Amino acid sequence: MAEKIILETRGITKYFGGLRAVYNISLKLNEKNILAIIGPNGAGKTTTFNLISGVFPVSSGNIIFEGKDITKTNPAERCHLGIGRTFQIMQPFEDMSVLENITTGALFGRHKYSLKEAKQKSLEIAKRFGLFEYKDFVGSKLPLAYRKKLEIARAYATSPKVMLLDEVMEGLNPAEAREMIETIFSLRDEGISIIMIDHIMFTIKELADWVIVMNYGEKLTEGKYDDVVKSKEVIEAYLGKEETC
Question: What is the pTM of this model?
């Protein structure tokens, strides 16, 4: 049985004035799969996330979610449909507690929770992500690894069908990275489809079902991890002469 596509972009392109940031990016995310986007800094990876999540409108191209064209919808509408994301530069609501941050996600997500229901759901999510003992801490004051967890927990609270994870491994030590890998697998096992951006190749090797390589705003190549990292053009543009895997 063929895998079902949950999210697809068709030739999405973004110009900022005369600057072409992303050009003709087409990708397909299958249900319950993990798709990784890799490439050098400035390749257009996060801009692609911003187009998928609706932060930026596309200059051209289309975004299809569960078979429906959502190109013209705004970020809130996409969140309500089931697209959640984290940010490379973590953005907790600075003056709000961990629990309040997660509750905000629950209130503005796919389900129409009452405040009481959202608070109860958030307590469960705090436990799920190892944040319960920090639930009353101000989110911006957490150590790095816990701020990463909070980013994911808040996105998870929206009840997403697709999660966009932007460099959630960056800055983690090996034990924290291992825990994050297990967290991402658990999200996938719950039925959430994932697109992730990262530079840490061993995590891409372990997690990704499919890899897209971007460079200068364009898709350089795509395929299974073992095939992609052997590509001469990928080695020259991104991995360097010594493969980082």
Answer: 0.92
